[in-house]
Amino acid sequence: MREGKRQLEQHRWRHPDPIPRSRRERLLLAAERLEVELDVERRANAAYEHNRATARDRLGRRLGGRTDPYRPPEVPAAKANVTDPDSRPIPVGFGFVQGYNAQAAVNEQQIVLAAEITNNSTDFSQLDPMVTATLGELERAGIEQLPEAVAADAGYWNEQHMDEVTANKHIPVLIPPDKGSRGTPRPGWTGGRYEWMRRVLSTELGQRLYRKRAQTVEPLFGNTKHNNGVYRFHRRGRVKVRTEWRLLMMTHNLGKLHRHQLAAMGA
User: Fold this and answer.
1) How far apart are CA 68 and CA 88, in angstroms?
2) Statement: residue 173 has pLDDT above 90
C-alpha cells in the first residue's frame, strides 16, 4: 500500500489540481481525493493479498498468510484539509501545523542552489530529490563542476538515497546516523555503514566539511524566519506554494548579491 500511495502522490505532483476559491468546491475536491485514496488502498491491498496467495518461496512452498488479513474500510477513514488539500500535518517543536516541508540546498557562500517543497512530514526521502534538483539548476546555469560533498542532518539518513548520490551522481555524502541530542547510538544502528560514517565524521576533514552545514543552510532558515518574518506560506496548492518558496529564496540570493556588490564598491 505504501507503494500505491507513493505513486498516487507522484501523479498529483505531475498533474496538480487547482485549489478552488469556493469552499463548496474545495469540499468536493477533498471528498474526491479521499475516494481516490481509498480506491488506491483497496487495489494495493488486493494486489498484496493476491501475491501472498500465489507466490512461492525458493523451495516452491506457499507463503504463510495472515489469519486476519487487512480489510480496507467501506468509506474513507482519512482526513483532508479543505483549505488546502495538498497540505499535510507537519511536526514542529510544539506539535503539528498544517502546511509543507520546505527544502533548500546552499553552497558555502549561502547562495541557494535549489529550493523545493514537499508535503512529506519528514526529510527521510528528500536527499536524492534535492541533490537531483541542485544538479539540474547547476546544469541550467552552465556550471559543470560537481559539489565537493553533500552534508545533511540525521533526518536525511536514507541508505538507498545515499547509495544513489554516491554511486550514480559521484558525490560524497556526509550524514550522521545519530541526532545531536542522542548520547548513544540507536538500537541496531551499530557496525557496518553506521560506524564507518561515524569514523568519517570524526576525522579532521569530515568535521571541517560537516561543520559548514551549520554555517550555511541553518542561518538561511534562521534569517528567513526570524529576520524576514516568514513563518507561513500565503498561497494554497503545491504549485503556488512552491513558487512562493522559490521567490523567497530568490530574494535571499539577490540580497546576497547586492551586499557583495556594495562591499566590492567600498573596497
Assistant:
1) 31
2) yes
Pick from 124, 104, 106, 125: which is nearest to 116 by CA? Answer: 104
Strands 101-106 and 112-118 come out as antiparallel
Across the chain, what does the average pLDDT equal?
Answer: 90
| pLDDT given for residue 181 in this prediction | 64
Strand 150-151 versus strand 112-118 pairing type: unpaired
Pairing state between β 95-99 and 88-92? antiparallel
DSSP string, 37-103: HHHHHHHHHHHHHHHHHH-B-TTSPBPPPPSS-----SS--S---SS-TT-EEEEETTEEEEE-EEE
Residues 170/111, Cβ–Cβ less than 8 Å: no
Per-residue confidence (pLDDT) for residue 66, from 0 to 100? 63
Instruction: Look at the block and give the residue holding cell 489469519.
Output: 67
Torsional class of 142: left (φ above 0), alpha (ψ -120 to 50), beta (otherwise):
left
Q: What are phi and psi of 113, to 5 degrees?
A: -95, -30
**Number of residues that this document lists for the chain:** 267
* CA–CA gap between residue 118 and residue 60 (Å, rounded): 43
Q: From CA 131, how far away is CA 191, in angstroms rounded?
A: 27
Closest among 203, 164, 195 to 178, alpha carbons compared: 195
Please report the pLDDT score of residue 267 as a whole number: 65
Backbone angles phi, psi at 62, to 5 degrees: -70, 145
| Neighbouring-strand partners of residue 108 | none
- State the cell numbers at 267: 573596497
Coil, helix or strand at residue 5:
helix
Domain boundaries, the chain: 2-85, 92-266
Q: Collapsing DSSP states into helix, strand and coil, what is residue 186? A: coil
